[in-house]
Amino acid sequence: MQITENTAVSLNYTMFNVEGKIIDKNHEPIVYLHGGYDNILPAVEVALTGKSVGDSVSVTMAPEEAFGEFDPVMIREEEIGLFPPDIEVGIMFETRDPETEETLQFRVTAIDAGRVTVDGNHPLAGMTIRFEATVLDVRAATSEEIAHGHVHGEHGHEH
Q1: What are the φ/ψ torsions at residue 8 (nearest 5 degrees)?
Q2: DSSP state of 153
Q3: Is position 129 within any domain?
Q4: Together in a domain, 85 and 135
Q5: Looking at the structure, do residues 92 and 18 belong to the same domain, yes or no?
Q6: In terms of pTM, does the model score above 0.85?
């Protein structure tokens, strides 16, 4: 079976930076719903279209095609009193932008002299990425998966 719209795809992947260093690799197969559901990077989805079990792809993406450009405006410094007492570097948290009501995710990058520095950029923002993947399985998605916009079951979404 080939990867087409509304197929559940299982794959292994490795991501590399421009120097060829591994920056991410799955430990369990990832499973996503193919067909424009925003479950995988769009350039990778395009490359996987028409592939079958055992096929591999290699996609090099500029920052704007992958995790976005690095935006210095997304780095903020706040008083430590605004955070819980167990705050530490590396913790991720969500907040809502009061103007747009958009949910934003931040990572604590530094704590110093009563100030906490947070970064709302994706950790891979600003990087050119090479994404290599091998297709492990392809099956027709269920009507429930299509209605929900994601794969259910093992390595997929649990309700």
Answers
A1: -90, 125
A2: S
A3: yes
A4: no
A5: no
A6: no
